[in-house]
């Protein structure tokens, strides 16, 4: 056997390992539409905290979906206006007035961003502090992005699951928009890669050290958050949801799943829009390490690009295992394509999609080196590692 043939069989072995030994992430089977726990004996108080910076186009629909939640307990909402310049606060107040819910909404003007904090976490921290100082501090804090709309039973199902499992964090991976050409080609892979990095079955297993969360929708037990050091303990984290998941899993059980109840309205009409979204945090995922970056580039090229390349150009003894690896890769991509109601015929294009994400990751490192890392809403937020 030649070296090329050995490499082809190794590629196949890698995909066999991912198929069998990575928490069956590819099945996309951990969802919140399974059998729900029975309702709790009582419905604890919840305060939703929504950080919002220039979200005038999104915040109205998000609040409208919160005001019609069928939750039987107390639900109050705090919008932290992070120094918006587009009238976000006015839109939020009008949404509350239109729903007859002005008594349930507080719009909190955000203070200037201090050094060492990312903008979103600083806004979240202010909202949680305000909620904790209320006359009746809530049992749960519902952290929501400003671009998520919810089915009416979302909070009830979240609280029922959290109470039945005594969970300190219950998180839903909001269903992202998948309408534009760019979204249809790149968004399902984004979820596929996230599940591969953070297999939901392992995240939800108290015996596993794996921890993660999806920042668009997180129900947090307030007492556990206090014991974990609060939001201040992750103040500079760019991938704040997974950082919070890791902190809270030290306090108790957590749960993360796919959902159709929470929908992101954030549009990504062009490929460049998704590139910016990924580049904002990709290098942070690698801890700003050039060595991890190099390893990631080599690994992605070997695992995703190698099989189709060898299948097309290698001789039969190498082409066969390479073709099997490509076929296996494609079949594992099908469940998330089906979740997003897309044709399985897109699956063989996963190597090209992975190449796009490889380019986005390299661009993320370039942006960091240029002092523009973590760029979001006019702020460069990526911080170098301590001692760097």
Automatic annotation (TrEMBL):
Species of origin: Candidatus Raskinella chloraquaticus
Pfam families in the record: Glycos_transf_2 (PF00535)
Signal peptide bounds: none
Residue spans crossing the bilayer: 185-203, 286-306, 318-337, 349-366
PANTHER family listed in its UniProt record: GLYCOSYLTRANSFERASE, SLR1566 PROTEIN
Annotated Glycosyltransferase 2-like domain residues: 49-227
Residue runs in coiled coils: none
Keywords from the UniProt entry: Membrane, Transferase, Transmembrane, Transmembrane helix
Gene3D superfamilies per record: Spore Coat Polysaccharide Biosynthesis Protein SpsA, Chain A
SUPFAM superfamilies xrefs: Nucleotide-diphospho-sugar transferases
Name recorded for this polypeptide: Glycosyl transferase family 2
């Amino acid at each position: 056997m030649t070296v090329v043939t050995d490499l082809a069989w190794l590629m196949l072995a890698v995909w066999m390992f991912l198929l069998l030994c990575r928490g069956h992430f590819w099945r996309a089977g951990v969802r919140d539409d399974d059998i729900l726990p029975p309702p709790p004996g009582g419905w604890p108080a919840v305060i939703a905290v929504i950080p919002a910076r220039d979200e005038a186009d999104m915040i109205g629909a998000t609040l409208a979906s919160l005001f019609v939640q069928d939750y039987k307990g107390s639900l109050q909402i705090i919008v932290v206006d992070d120094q918006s310049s587009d009238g976000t606060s006015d839109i939020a107040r009008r949404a509350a007035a239109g729903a007859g819910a002005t008594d349930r909404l507080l719009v909190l003007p955000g203070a200037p961003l201090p050094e060492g904090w990312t903008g979103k976490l600083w806004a979240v921290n202010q909202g949680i502090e305000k909620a904790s100082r209320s006359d009746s501090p809530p049992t749960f804090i519902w952290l929501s992005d400003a671009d998520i709309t919810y089915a009416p039973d979302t909070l009830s199902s979240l609280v029922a699951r959290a109470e039945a499992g005594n969970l300190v964090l219950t998180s839903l991976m909001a269903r992202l928009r998948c309408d534009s050409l760019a979204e249809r080609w790149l968004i399902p892979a984004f979820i596929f890669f996230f599940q591969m990095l953070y297999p939901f079955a392992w995240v939800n297993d108290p015996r596993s050290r794996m921890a993660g969360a999806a920042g668009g929708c997180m129900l947090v037990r307030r007492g556990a958050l206090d014991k974990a050091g609060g939001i201040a303990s992750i103040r500079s984290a760019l991938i704040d949801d997974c950082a919070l998941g890791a902190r809270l899993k030290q306090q108790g059980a957590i749960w993360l799943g796919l959902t159709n109840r929470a929908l992101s309205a954030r549009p990504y009409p062009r490929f460049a829009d998704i590139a910016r979204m990924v580049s904002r945090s990709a290098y942070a995922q690698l801890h700003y390490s050039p060595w991890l970056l190099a390893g990631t580039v080599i690994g992605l090229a070997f695992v995703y690009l190698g099989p189709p390349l060898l299948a097309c150009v290698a001789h039969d003894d190498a082409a066969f295992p390479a073709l099997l690896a490509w076929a296996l890769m494609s079949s594992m991509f099908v469940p998330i394509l089906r979740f997003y109601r897309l044709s399985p015929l897109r699956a063989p294009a996963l190597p090209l999609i992975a190449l796009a994400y490889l380019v986005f990751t390299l661009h993320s490192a370039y942006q960091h080196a240029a002092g523009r890392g973590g760029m979001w809403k006019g702020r460069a937020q990526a911080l170098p590692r301590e001692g760097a």
